[in-house]
Amino acid sequence: MRTGYFINALLLMVLMVLGPVSSALAAEAAFVGMQVQGVSKTVAAAFGIDKPEGVLVRDVALGGPADKSGIHRGDMIVSFAGTDIDTFERLVVKVRELKAGDSVPITILREGKTLKLTMKTGKWTPAWQVSKGAFASLPAVGLTLTALTPKVRDRFGIRWGSTGVVITLIDPEKATNLDLQRGELIHQVNQKLIWDPNQMVKMYEDAKAQGKKSLLMLVEGANGFRFSILKVK
């Protein structure tokens, strides 16, 4: 038990490089779209490094600045914005100094090679700024949805980097022929990103008013992404 605690405390100190959650700050702050963790002596030795330095990239937001710059999961960042990165705290400081649209030189280690990349930081989209809870229901089809706040993400074990609204309740009597599960994430509706449950309600009501018979949803579940049809009743 002590060994497990030691590893969790010292090896897996995770930093989500997400930035501020307030809309005012998000308008100015840079979005980089990656999740990192610190490097222990054991990890450094695996990389052939004498002492712990740099940070490891755990995950990269698809289509985000880190992804577009060529950063991969498993890369070790050793320099960021002209500063040597020896701890993940130092990386946090450098990220918070940036603004949207800045070009940032980055040095990484990958498969024993040193690579130099350039990242252009992005802006925070509404889907990444969700901090307040919100829920809505579609009684006709038996669905209750909630916003993907950090607490909801932890509760349902939704992976970092995912955006959308979470299915929290399904009425089996009304949700017939729906291939949806509680805890799954609705990422898009008719090719439009959603992050607020009320968006889903409005799109459903608009579709009904226009005489449409169905909506096309992009859903993320335990087995990845899939398309699902929601009939308009």
Describe the structure in your own words.
The structure is a single chain. With about 230 residues, the chain is of the alpha+beta class. It contains 7 helices and 14 strands. The strands form 2 sheets. Strands 1, 2, 3, 4, 5, 6 and 7 form a 7-stranded antiparallel β-sheet that branches. Strands 8, 9, 10, 11, 12, 13 and 14 form a 7-stranded antiparallel β-sheet that branches. The radius of gyration is 21 Å and the shape is elongated. The termini are far apart.
Q: How many individual helices? A: 7
- Integer tally of domains: 2
- For the secondary structure, the number of strands is 14
Terminal CA distance: 54 Å
Strand % is 25-35%
What average pLDDT do the residues reach? 81
How is the biggest beta sheet arranged?
7 strands, antiparallel
The CATH architecture term of the largest domain is Roll
- Which residues sit in consecutive blocks of at least 5 with pLDDT less than 50? 1-27
Spell out the blueprint of helices and strands.
Layout lengths: L1 H9 L3 E4 L5 H6 L5 E5 L2 H6 L8 E6 L4 H5 L6 E5 L2 E2 L3 H9 L6 E8 L2 E8 L14 E4 L4 E5 L2 H7 L8 E6 L14 E5 L2 E2 L3 H13 L4 E8 L2 E8 L2
Antiparallel strand pairs: 1-2, 2-3, 3-4, 4-5, 4-6, 6-7, 8-9, 9-10, 10-11, 11-12, 11-13, 13-14
What key attributes describe this structure?
14 strands; 33% strand; 2 domains; single chain; Pdz3 Domain; 233 residues; 7 helices; disordered N terminus
